């Protein structure tokens, strides 16, 4: 027969064990809830960080009343639409102004690329459809560029042989519709939008390249590096003066190009199918 003292000690010990188990369960639940809370907090902070602009508005202002502040580092954007025969591509660049005296006056911080199909030339009888086809690209650009920089961002459209092959005024009607779409969405002045039907290929390291053969959808280009560079002394059309933040720069195309319109891969397929 057990003594009363032994029985009481056993009851107390069991109560302590049950209390410890309950406390352990509560502690485990609290730890789990804490982990879940931390994970949710990380997700929220990540979303906020991604949506928040990485710089303040003052980082983008480089000029006052049209005068460039050369000694103030700032950011700006440039949009290039590559209107090929098989699709339209968006090249969106974010630059930062280099205040140093050495090197280029700016450097690329970020490049965004997106593409939609088909090309603008597919809307030869529906110019409004051409403008609608690039709205998704415009939306991507608007989501990237701060609204206060929309009317200060230069926009260039480079079209290739796909539009040049269209008869009559079809190409001009498409370009006019696209221009109106871009200017309205970006609240830009007409001089902020430039369109061009020329395509100038380039070499990353021309000294190591003999020639480049570019087979596009609607045309073919052959570009090569002349042995005698003095040939450009008699062809000033390859030079162009530009200004970046007060720095005068002369851009010289030091390659010669020859283009054959209608000799692209898509044109070959059409001719073969006929």
Automatic annotation (TrEMBL):
The chain crosses the membrane at residues 26-48. ATP binds at residues 217-221. Keywords: ATP-binding, Hydrolase, Membrane, Nucleotide-binding, Transmembrane, Transmembrane helix. It comes from the Eukaryota. One of its GO terms (molecular function) is hydrolase activity. Belongs to the GDA1/CD39 NTPase family. This is Uncharacterized protein. The lineage of its organism: Eukaryota, Metazoa, Ecdysozoa, Nematoda, Chromadorea.
């Amino acid at each position: 027969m057990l003594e009363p003292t032994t029985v009481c000690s056993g009851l107390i010990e069991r109560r302590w064990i049950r209390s410890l188990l309950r406390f352990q369960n509560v502690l485990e639940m609290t730890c789990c809830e804490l982990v879940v809370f931390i994970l949710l907090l990380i997700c929220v902070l990540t979303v906020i960080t991604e949506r928040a602009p990485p710089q303040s508005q003052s980082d983008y202002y480089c000029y006052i009343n049209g005068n460039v502040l050369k000694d103030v580092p700032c950011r700006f954007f440039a949009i290039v639409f590559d209107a090929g025969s098989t699709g339209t591509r968006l090249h969106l660049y974010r630059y930062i102004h280099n205040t140093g005296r050495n090197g280029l006056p700016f450097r690329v911080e970020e490049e965004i690329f997106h593409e939609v199909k088909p090309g603008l030339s597919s809307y030869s009888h529906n110019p409004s459809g051409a403008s609608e086809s690039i709205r998704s690209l415009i939306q991507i650009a608007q989501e990237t560029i701060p609204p206060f920089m929309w009317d200060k961002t230069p926009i260039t459209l480079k079209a290739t042989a796909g539009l040049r092959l269209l008869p009559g005024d079809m190409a001009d009607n498409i370009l006019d519709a696209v221009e109106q779409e871009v200017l309205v969405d970006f609240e830009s002045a007409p001089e902020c939008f430039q369109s061009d039907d020329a395509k100038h290929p380039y070499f990353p390291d021309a000294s190591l390249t003999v020639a480049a053969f570019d087979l596009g959808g609607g045309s073919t280009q052959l570009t090569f590096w002349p042995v005698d560079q003095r040939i450009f002394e008699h062809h000033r059309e390859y030079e162009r003066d530009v200004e970046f933040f007060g720095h005068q720069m002369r851009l010289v195309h030091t390659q010669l190009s020859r283009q054959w319109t209608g000799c692209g891969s898509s044109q070959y397929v059409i001719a073969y199918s006929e």
